[in-house]
Amino acid sequence: xxxxxxxxxxxxxxxxxxxxxxxxxxxxxxxxxxxxxxxxxxxxxxxxxxxxxxxxxxxxxxxxxxxxxxxxxxxxxxxxxxxxxxxxxxxxxxxxxxxxxxxxxxxxxxxxxxxxxxxxxxxxxxxxxxxxxxxxxxxxxxxxxxxxxxxxxxxxxxxxxxxxxxxxxxxxxxxxxxxxxxxxxxxxxxxxxxxxxxxxxxxxxxxxxxxxxxxxxxxxxxxxxxxxxxxxxxxxxxxxxxxxxxxxxxxxxxxxxxxxxxxxxxxxxxxxxxxxxxxxxxxxxxxxxxxxxxxxxxxxxxxxxxxxxxxxxxxxxxxxxxxxxxxxxxxxxxxxxxxxxxxxxxxxxxxxxxxxxxxxxxxxxxxxxxxxxxxxxxxxxxxxxxxxxxxxxxxxxxxxxx
Length: 402
Ligand code: GCO
Ligand code: MG
Fold this sequence. Notes:
- The chain has 13 helices and 20 strands.
- It has two domains: about 100 residues, Enolase-like, N-terminal domain (Enolase-like, domain 1), CATH 3.30.390.10; about 260 residues, TIM Barrel (Alpha-Beta Barrel), CATH 3.20.20.120.
- Strands 4, 5, 8, 9, 10, 11, 12, 13, 15 and 16 form a ten-stranded mixed sheet that branches. Strands 1-2-3 form a three-stranded antiparallel sheet.
- Helix content is about 35%, strand content about 20%.
- It binds D-gluconic acid (GCO) and magnesium ion (MG).
- The site of magnesium ion (MG) has 5 residues, from loops.
- Magnesium ion binds next to loops.
């Protein structure tokens, strides 16, 4: 069996998605998500100019060998663009494998460890009162786990706050826009926010919060300690992922569980964090972290240290990635939680999805492979539009981590 053709489909139904379609001479094709928010065309070009010519003629069933071909076989390994492309290849090949064997992906990963996948919603508001209101709305929709973000007083355009009426979507058309940041104000505000949420909604709701790489290690330690009374399910990216030693300092001061790694792309980003037990949840998604082949190994390694999986699932990860994540989450024993930001309705014109939200959980049907399809005619109706993530400046103008 051979790969006879592959193509990259770039489409913008409300936001940009890059989808890899690999076709075989057995009449079966597979889809992979290659979307890298704000750098979409870099991955598309890498796939088109380098990876696709190397894939043609190869046996699509050899997922392990092909993974290594595009990892060990690439001298310039790792990196977001390289690994997003490899992830898409790997996902498409596992999709093909499932279709060839006539079985859903989760069966190839060990079958079901659970029937449904616990997900968390995003609650957001421009201030504490609006955020509280938003938490209530998510609970009314049936969610039992909610990430809470709110505008920090006197910090215009903070992270995680929706610009208009709709859900939070940080990328905006054109070149990067600028947001502002002030850690001292944030550190004073965040514990009060969670005190208000607990007072309003009680102890049962699972609460999460994303620091989005904004704190220094000692600031992160202060925050994690101050949030302890509110028993967060997790505190995400308290320090920037590139400074892994920062987590040691945080751990010395707090037992608030930590999730990290939505910007990681290799098991080597995680080795010390996991083996030193500095984190509790892995965030690296299938579509950026090397696909099913790589994440299966990382999940097994994490499981040994009682670290759980908590995949990134923002709207910039396509329905192909979300569906693959649900299969993975159903199968691995050390699953923790899945992020779920429903895509706007227009996305379903392009992607035909096979998952369903019900009572705070997602389930998926038994369509072979990943089970998501793409309508290429519809995709062509939504051409690429350049959009970028913001950059952030401190109140004195210094550029900081967004
Ligand atoms: C999250 C994330 C997102 C990212 C976005 C970047 O936890 O969902 O932090 O909000 O910022 O996915 O592309
Ligand atoms: Mg995050």
